[in-house]
Amino acid sequence: MGMMSATQHALTVFRKLFPEDPNAKIVILGSVHDIPIHYDRKFEWFSRLAPKENVNFRIDDINEGGWNVIINCCCEHMVQMKEVTLSGIYLLQSNDRYHDHHLNRVTSIDAFRSQCGLDEIYYEDSKEFNGAKYYTIIGEKW
Amino acid sequence: MKTTVEPISFFCTFWGKKYDKKYVQILHNAVKRNYKGEFKFYCQTDQKLDIPGVIELPFGRYKPVNTGRFPDKAKLNFWEPNCWGISGRKVYFDLDVVILGNLNTLIDLYDGKPIINRSWWQDEQGINDDPTNYLAYRGITNGSVYIWEDNELTAEMWDHITKNAKYIFFCCINGSDGYFSSMHLDKFDFVPRNMSFSYHNEKPSNPLTYTFCTIDTKRNNAAYDDQDELDSLKGWIKDIWV
Questions:
Q1: CATH class assigned to A6-141
Q2: In a domain, B3, yes or no
Q3: Domain ranges across chain A
Q4: In chain A, which residues have their Cβ closer than 8 Å to the Cβ of B162?
Q5: Residue B149 structural domain
Q6: Do B183 and A45 touch (CB under 8 A)?
Q7: ipTM of this complex prediction, to 2 decimal places
Q8: pLDDT digits (tens, 9 = 90+) for B190-232
Q9: Which one of B12, B61, B65, B150 has the minimum C-beta count within 10 Å?
């Protein structure tokens, strides 16, 4: 069995806290890196092939959607998650890796938390994966 | 190919302390030397220039303030339809563009799609082979030169800009080129390869056959040894930049 990825770690912790719920309406922001997970809608961060789908310019549409579970393990690729105002459970992850794609890398859990705009936080951690520090926060917006 | 509609409107923009106003004067001189026909020359600025032939324009919707994450936001103003009440064929130059030859040939290439300069030299570094996301990158467009008329394409871009400005200014940390390359690449034609080059990143054997060159910041494997601004360059380019 290979090493767990940062995304796998986040989803594993999330499922321990929030087992699958048939009433969940899940929106993925960014990507879950091919990890099989049921979702109702995904907004990509990668704009080159489908620019009109880019999550960064769909925030208003997202906020008007009916989703109550918001999963974003790619926060480093997009605007601060306090821009998303949907009421629901949030799984959010970012990291401190330097990369041309990373327009919003963060360097501490405190900095990341301040971007999330959560009303309640149920879990957070900082762990190293593949040479970078990853910050995971699970919480809720009311 | 459409015939150029006159008078052409040339634009530049000038603020802050990076350049002296002589850069505006020299660009205006270069247009006078290299464009045959009627034209007007405008400069979007917050300063009093007092340069004969240069019409000063106030900043449009986006001011050059809070530019930390989007350095050239004031350049987006040129895409506002009928901005400053000006219509017709429009041409924009950055102040660090050096015009080397006949502008009419370039401007006459306009065929309904806005034309933007292209960082052709980046192709050799494989930028188009890399499935990168231009949004946070500098992009393959090079906003040193625009040629356009207000139409549905430019209106669509302006609409996207105004609706998403808050997010654009956060995401596009290298400015307008990352934005245009990511979101509007299909709306542009490019300045042809044989008409522009990057002074600091290429070394063509026949520079004076090109229409203009840009004084970009030097990248890896740059052809020239220095990366000074125009003011301190020497040699043939300094003889032309007057």
A1: alpha beta
A2: no
A3: 6-141
A4: none
A5: 8-240
A6: no
A7: 0.87
A8: 999 999 999 888 889 999 999 999 986 554 433 444 445 677 7
A9: B65
Rounded to an integer, the average pLDDT of B40-49 is 96
Which residue carries 């995904």 as its tokens? Answer: A42
From chain A, the residues in CB contact with B132 under 8 A are 48, 100-101
Looking at the domain assignment, is residue B27 inside a domain? yes
Chain-chain contact of B135 with A54 (C-beta, under 8 angstroms): yes
Task: Collapse the DSSP code of A135 into the 3-class scheme (helix H, G, I; strand E, B; otherwise coil) and give the result.
Answer: strand
Tell me which residue has tokens 């990511």: B182
Lowest mean pLDDT among A116-120, B64-68, B186-190: B64-68
User: For an interface test with A, which of B133, B182, B220 has the most A Cβ atoms less than 10 Å from its Cβ?
Assistant: B133
- Name every chain B residue with its beta carbon within 8 A of the beta carbon of A101: 132-133, 135-137
Tell whether B46 is covered by a domain.
Answer: yes
Q: How far is CA B143 from CA A16, A65, B6, B67, B119, in A?
A: 50, 36, 23, 16, 9
Selection from B166, B32, B210 nearest residue A83 by Cα: B166
Domains in chain B, number: 1
Give domain status of residue B2, yes or no: no
Nearest to B137 among A77, A100, A104 (CB): A100
Residue B111: name the closest of B81, B75, B153, B79 by CA: B153
Supply the CATH number for residue B59's domain.
3.90.550.10
Cα separation of B121 and B119, whole Å? Answer: 5
pLDDT tens-digit profile of B144-153?
999 999 999 9
Q: Tell me which chain B residues have a C-beta less than 8 angstroms from the C-beta of A47.
A: 133-135, 182-183
Give the span between the Cα atoms of B132 and B81, in whole angstroms: 31
B167 vs A51, A56, A77: nearest CB: A56
Q: Which chain B residues are Cβ-neighbours of A51 within 8 angstroms? A: 182-185
